[in-house]
Design a protein that fits this description.
Blueprint (H helix, E strand, L loop, with lengths): L10 H12 L4 E4 L1 H7 L8 E4 L3 H7 L3 E4 L5 E6 L2 E7 L23 H6 L8 E4 L4 E4 L3 H7 L1 E2 L5 H7 L2 H13 L2 E2 L1 H10 L8 H13 L3 H11 L1 H5 L1 H7 L21
Parallel strand pairs: 2-5, 8-9
Antiparallel strand pairs: 1-2, 1-6, 3-4, 4-5, 6-7
Helix pairs in contact: 6-8, 7-9, 7-10
Amino acid sequence: MPSLDRSGIDADADRVVRKLNRAGYKAYLVGGCVRDLLVARTPKDFDVATSATPNEIKATFRNSRIIGRRFRLAHVFFGSKIIETSTFRANPRDEDDHDLLIRRDNVFGTETEDARRRDFTINGLFYDVEREEVIDHVGGLADLDAKLIRTIGDPEVRFQEDPVRMLRAIKFAARLEFGFEEATWKALLRWRGEISKCAPPRLLEEIHRLMRGGACRRSFELLVETGTLAILSPYLAGLLEGSGAPASPPPLIAAPPRPTI
């Protein structure tokens, strides 16, 4: 299993976690920063998840402010640096809700619920800075070791809840040179058309991240291979339909790409 190099942890992020712990709250480093440290990459930012509510976070840090409407969280400021600090969330969708698309995300929950509502197993890892251990509620360590992108929970549901996750799956596969777990890949192909339901600003933001992530070429190859580019921009997909590019989206039984070893 991969090990985490503590020397790569941002000192201010460490300070936020420890101060929340001293105030009586659970708090961990979470998500991409933990993933990147485990694969020996430098995190671009550090996020914290905590049992404290946004108002409790604000009361703990004078150098913070609450942001967001769909997803309320706190930004803790250290000069120009921001440590994004969010409250543990639960899945906001009602069990009998036939519309799977998430439209609100301010239902607070437990540490375990927060891990399980995240998008991919490799992004669902927590790091306890005081005990110096990775907390894995979702099997993310095994998937990091196997170099696989796998949704947390049923990918058929997770991609319908938030279709932007399909672009994120492509981004992480390209950036980390990972392959796709088979069910995740098949669900991406099946539900790629749901991307058209997303708000254009969210799509544009994710496309910018995809192109700035250091693996733009591989990202576009995956957009073409999955037929996702044809959903985002039929015009651009048409321009790329040439040597080496599929003339139509792949069938739902297409095999997933494997990781680069």
